[in-house]
Amino acid sequence: MLEGPDFDRLWGIPGAGYAGKMLSMAAKKFGLKCKIFMGAKDIKRQRPNVEAIRKNGAEIVPVTTGSQTLVDAVSECMRYWVSNCDTTHMCVGSTVGPNIFIKICAWSTAQISRELILQVKEEFGKIPNKLKLINCVGGGSSAAGFWNEFMDTHAQFIGVEAGGPRNSKLHAAPLTNGSKIGILHGAAQYVIQDKEGQIGSTESISAGLDYPGISPLHCFLKDTKRARYTSASDEEALKAYKLVSKLENISPSLEPSHAFAEAIKLAPRLSSSEIIIVNSCGDSFKDKDIIKQKLGSYIR
Ligand SMILES: Cc1ncc(COP(=O)(O)O)c(C=O)c1O
Fold first, then answer.
1. 137-178 pLDDT, tens per residue?
2. Considering only the top CATH level, what class is 106-295?
3. Per DSSP, which regions of the chain are E strands?
4. What DSSP character marks residue 148?
5. Are 205 and 237 a contacting pair, CB within 8 Å?
6. Does domain 9-93 bear CATH number 3.40.50.1100?
7. In CATH terms, are 9-93 and 106-295 the same topology?
8. What are the tens digits of pLDDT across the range 227-243?
9. How far is the CA of 173 from the centre of ligand 1 (A)?
10. Hey, which of 69, 74, 94, 241 would you mutate to test ligand 1's pocket, going by the most ligand atoms within 8 Å of its Cβ?
11. For ligand 1, is residue 159 a contact (CB within 6 Å)?
12. Ligand 1 centre distance from Cα of residue 209 (Å)
């Protein structure tokens, strides 16, 4: 990826800032220039990751168009990249965009399930009959990675989208809320849109899930009924964050807190032979300002 004779720059796009943090670390290690395109709203609400990106020496390009979130950052980064593609490599931190970016991202994140399937077999001696794998879904990379090695097994997949604030019509849940197929960022997918096909607004407490589209991979899993998709509201995610932080000695970020919210809803209805595994795919530190503002204190 980094060896092309003319490559001296990497450009990337995070929502919550994790992909930017990792990309800036890679750029630092290999002595490459790095620009991170991030929505101005996300720069404000994900301050700890923004500081880490800057510490690694990368330049943050604030995107002030549209909703100033991930969707606008992806558009801006793509625009910039097509004008400079001889000397730069664009790195997309989710399974979105044109086909090759989805493949690169899904292959990389599949490492999660390569390790998980070994751990499950070691723990249970086999893949348990009623195994449920729950993951939050924004663009869909961590869910794709979490499920990949279980694709040909009987494990059930549950994807949890961002339902947005309880009393708002806005959300970031195209699969759960009946959105139609449209084109976004070079791929056909279910996407939040108006009657004319213009991309619609979204809202979520979680920067990483605040995206109007969804990977075509997940559209396929929904259409073939291989996975089930649902959503959790901002309030449910916050409540789940609070409970999990208190009881489990981990502190999930607001993205996986959506997945925990579904596990909390589902668990009381299951028998003791049914196993749930939730991917706690991010740490809450990046969300400490939001959590403090909403809950009055921050537990890590
Ligand atoms: C911790 C965390 N989880 C989940 C996501 C959502 O992305 P994806 O749906 O691609 O896994 C993000 C995106 O920034 C994230 O930071």
1. 999 999 999 999 999 999 999 999 999 999 999 999 999 999
2. alpha beta
3. 9-13, 33-39, 59-63, 88-92, 131-136, 156-164, 181-184, 187-190, 227-233, 275-278
4. G
5. yes
6. yes
7. yes
8. 999 999 999 999 999 99
9. 14
10. 94
11. no
12. 6
